[in-house]
Amino acid sequence: MKDIRLNIGGPKGNAFYILGTVSSLIDDEELAKAIRDEMKESDYNHLLRTYLRYFSMVRLYSESELNGVDDDLYEVTDSDIIEL
Question: Which is more confident, 26 or 80?
């Protein structure tokens, strides 16, 4: 299975967009709600860490460095991607 890549450096990096992708990655709506609730417990870095813990097939990237986002959460690249 190929990795799914999500560009968090653009409009899809918005917390609301990322929260919205949870339901497209998991069929169980009760579990999806629990994951979204956990993601919302703290700041943006926590949201991303929680997301990656549940969805290890997703790789976060940006075409440039992002201020305030922990470096270990994403890679800086402009390589060919499969967008989520």
Answer: 26
Q: Is residue 82 part of a domain?
A: no
Average pLDDT over residues 12-16: 96
Please tell me the pTM assigned to this model.
0.89
Q: How far is CA 39 from CA 68, 77, 80, in A?
A: 17, 25, 28
Asked if residues 79 and 25 have their Cβ atoms less than 8 Å apart, the reply is no
Number of domains in the chain: 1
Does residue 84 sit within a domain?
Answer: no
> Which domain covers residue 66, as residue numbers?
4-76
- Closest by Cα among 69, 48, 68 to 59: 48
